[in-house]
Amino acid sequence: MNPDNNNQSQSDSPPSRPPDATRKHQRIRLEAVSKRWGESTAVDGIGFDVAPGEFVILLGPSGCGKSTTLRMIAGLERASAGRIHIGERDVTHLPPGDRGISMVFQSYALFPHLSVADNIVFGLRSRKVPRAEQRERLARVAELVDLEAYLERKPAQLSGGQRQRVALARAIISEHPICLMDEPLSNLDARLRGEMRREIKALQRRLGMTVIYVTHDQVEAMSMGDRVILMQDGRIVQDGTPDELYDRPATAFAAGFIGSPAMNLVTLAAAADGAVIEGEPHCSVAPHEAKGHRLGVRPEEIRLLPADAAGVPAEVIDAEYLGADSIVRLRVGSEQLRARLDGKPSVAPGAACRLQWRREAAHFFAADDGRRLAIAGHDLAAPPGRHRFESHAPHPGGPAATTSPVQDREARASSNPAGNDSPGVNR
Ligand SMILES: Nc1ncnc2c1ncn2[C@@H]1O[C@H](COP(=O)(O)OP(=O)(O)O)[C@@H](O)[C@H]1O
Ligand SMILES: [Mg+2]
Questions:
Q1: Residue 42 burial (CB < 10 Å; 0-12/13-18/19+)?
Q2: In whole angstroms, what is the distance from residue 171 CA to residue 79 CA?
Q3: Which pairing describes strands 294-297 and 363-365: parallel, antiparallel, or unpaired?
Q4: Cα dist. 240→26, 224, 249, 257 in Å?
Q5: pTM reported for the whole predicted model
Q6: CATH of region 263-414
Q7: Apex CA 204: angle with CA 201 and CA 206, to 5°?
Q8: Domain map (residue ranges) of the chain
Q9: Minimal CA–CA distance to 418: which of 386, 373, 374?
Q10: Which residues is 215 bridged to in the sheet?
Q11: Ligand 1 centre and the CA of 40: distance in Å?
Q12: Which of 178, 172, 256 is nearest to 213 (CA)?
C-alpha cells in the first residue's frame, strides 16, 4: 500500500510544532475495539487514549494483536466492534485517506524504480501539491533525516538504515500530525537500531508529532515511549509509563516481558515462619499468605554475599561475563535465579553464597492468573537470630573468608548487612 495516499488538503506551514488549535486533532481514542476473523479474536475489546504529541508504544509478543490494532487505527482493517476517534471525529468507518495519518512500515514500502527524492514526494505529487512547494518541503525533510546526499539514488543503492530514513521522510513530509509506525527498525542491525531509536525520538519531539509505535522489543519500548501499552492475546495487560511497567508490573507476564534478563519468578512454599523459596526451607522471604504464589525479583536487584552473611542460601551454577556486568546463575532450593552483577565477579561454580534484595524489590504474583498481589516481602538483610531468620547448618566448603564466592566489594557490603544502598554494589 502507498502509506501516504491522503488526499486531504494540507497546511502550508513548515514541519514544526503544530499550534494548539490543531493539536486537538492529534488526540486518538479507542473504545472497546475488537477484531475477529471467523472464530479467532485477534483484538479483544481494547481501549486507550493517546494525547497530542505523545509517543505511545504498543508492545507485546508476536501475534498479540499489535499490528491489527495499528491497522484498525489507520483504516487498513475494519474493526469488528468498538469505536475509533481521531480528534473530534469518529473515524471508525472512514477510509485511510480521510484519517490524517501517515504510516511507516518494517518493510519500508519504497518504490524500487523511483529515486529517493521521488519516493519521498510521491504522496505530495498524488495530492497535486504544487511543484515548487514539493521541492521546498523535500529539501527541508531531506536535511532533517540526513538524506541530502542520496536524493538521486535508487532504494537498492542505499543501506537498510538509509532506506528506513526514506520511509520516515515520506511520513514526515506529509505533515500529518499523527504517525503510526509498525516495527520500523526490525530489519536493522543492533547498532543502527540504537541510532535510529534516538533519531526517531528526537524528530518526534521536534515536530510535536503524535506517534503510535508497534514493537515486540522491550528495549525500544522502554527507551522511546512516553507510555507503553503492553498487550497479550489481544488484550491490554498494562498501560503506563516505562518506569511504572518496570517498577510495578501488573502481572507475572508483564514482569517477565520487561527487563533483560527477565525478572526471576520462583514458586513459594510454606514453612514455619513464613513463605520460602521452594526447596529452600531455611530463609523465609515473605509472610505466610505468599505461600503457593510466585515471588519476582529482578536480576539487577540481587546482591551476592558470602555464605556466612544473612540472606537466602544459594549455590553458584555459572557466570556469563558481558563486559560491563555479568549474569550469574544461582540455585536456590529447587529453583534457579539470575543475578546481574557489576564487572567480572570472581564467583566459582558450586560456591555457596547468600542472596539479598531490597524489600521493595520483591514482587508477588498470584499462582492462578498471575495478577499482582499486595504482599510485602521480608527484610533479608536483618541479622540472623534477631527475628524470623532461622539458623541452619553451615554450607559445605568452610567459612566465607577462604571460599568467598564474591568479589571484595561484595564482601565489604556484607560487613554492613543493612547497607542495601551501599554505592557500587550490584547497580
Ligand atoms: N488477515 C488476517 N486473517 C486472519 N488472521 C489474522 C490476519 N491478520 C492477523 N491475523 C491473526 O491475528 C492475530 C494478531 O496478529 P497481529 O496483529 O499481526 O499480531 P502482532 O502484530 O502483535 O504480531 C494473530 O493470531 C494473527 O495470526
Ligand atoms: Mg505485527
A1: buried
A2: 24
A3: antiparallel
A4: 20, 13, 10, 14
A5: 0.83
A6: 2.40.50.140
A7: 110
A8: 20-252, 263-414
A9: 386
A10: 59
A11: 9
A12: 178
Q: Spell 134-150 as b/e; 16+ CB within 10 A means b.
A: beebbeebbebbebeeb
| Residue from 158, 118, 162 nearest 138 by CA | 118
Question: In the CATH scheme, what architecture does the domain 20-252 have?
Answer: 3-Layer(aba) Sandwich (3.40)
Is the pLDDT confidence value at 413 over 70?
A: no
User: What gap in Å lies between CA 163 and CA 184, rounded to an integer?
Assistant: 11
Nearest CA to ligand 1 atom 5: 37
| Domain 20-252 and domain 263-414 have a common topology | no
Cell of 132: 515548487
* Amino acid in the structure at residue 325: D
Mutate to test the pocket of ligand 1, among 33, 34, 36, 37 (most ligand atoms within 8 A of CB): 37
DSSP for 307-326? TTSSSEEEEEEEEEE-SSEE
Reported confidence tier of residue 318, pLDDT bands at 50, 70, 90: very high
Distance 26 CA to ligand 1 centre (A): 27
Cβ contact 57:220 at 8 Å: yes
Q: What percent of the chain has pLDDT over 90?
A: 66
